[in-house]
Amino acid sequence: MFIEDYRAGAYETQTGFKSFIPSPINSSWEWRNTRINTLLEKANMELGSLNAYAELIPNIDIYIRMHIHVEANKSSKIEGTKTTIEEDMLPLMEVDPEKRDDVQEVQNYIAALQYGVERITKDGFPVSSRLIREIHRCLMNGVRGEFKTPGEFRLSQNWIGGSMPSKASYVPPAHIHIPQLMSDLEQFIHNDSIDVPMLVKAALVHYQFESIHPFLDGNGRTGRILIPLMLLHEGLLKKPCFYISEYFDLHRTEYYDALNRVRTHNDLLGWLLFFLEASVSTAEEARKKFSNAVAFVGETSRIARQLSGKTDNLMRVLDVFFEKPVQTAIQLASTLELSTQTVNRALNQLIQENLIEEKTGNARNRVFVCKGYLDIFQA
């Protein structure tokens, strides 16, 4: 089927509103627009460079963890959370009570994404309906959607925008269609008899998943988690270092418009071009951030080693900031199994050298940030 000839689906009349049933996607796909070829070539080249760079960096997992924090914050922000990355990294009880639910949602996103990565890389588990449900259960654990059947496809109607389906901006298919639509989606993911580039497949899967909206809540976040998992499972990524939600957040209006135009104008081409441009930019930015982070860690460590006195504990404290650049003294003492006095002595020395800074201005319950390092990933 040609991308340009795609017909997105049909509307089904229900009581007082119409819901949208997306067309199946388990098919071979072609296109006439040569812009797709150009973007695909560039995206694959950038992903190849990112892969090569990631394999050369010692301790790459430290930097990947920072990428995951940013991904979780940006993907959750698209759904309405309002926390900063610094707040997301604090212990929950240190966060303003009004923001704790948001922080918990972001932390759940990190846990769900890491769970998916481990299922694929360690267990060899495929991207499937079962894995999608497991990720969703992890995502919704103990947060605002915890009573909306986490890990189970919905058995009632949902909608996007508006107070009721008749006023909604989009009404997904009735729940009776979900088993068949999710089966088609899963078959497409694993259909080895069709020759579809993986980035094109990931774009189509994301659109289709968001159109099906199989859960009562958490569909956007689950759908965005699927993108790096698919690329990792198919070997397009060697390391889990590609996270596209930051681009989607920066271009949120275009992101939603591109998805909606497939349903309203059959514009699958427009969505695919947007997704490929996002992929090029995401891979480029990831490589730049890794490069800048490596340079920052090297220079900061060099300065710390030249300080007077014993530097062993100093370097240990600094290394924890490179894993998570927002810390409290109690966190550091627990992580490193050092006394709070020893940790505070190291922190004060790092502050004097402007390698970290204290954010609260308080005498107690202080919060320390390695801002230069954090800014690299927030740029």
UniProtKB/TrEMBL annotation:
Residues 127-277 form the Fido domain. It comes from the Bacteria. Coiled coil: none annotated. Pfam families: Fic, Fic_N. This is Fic family protein.
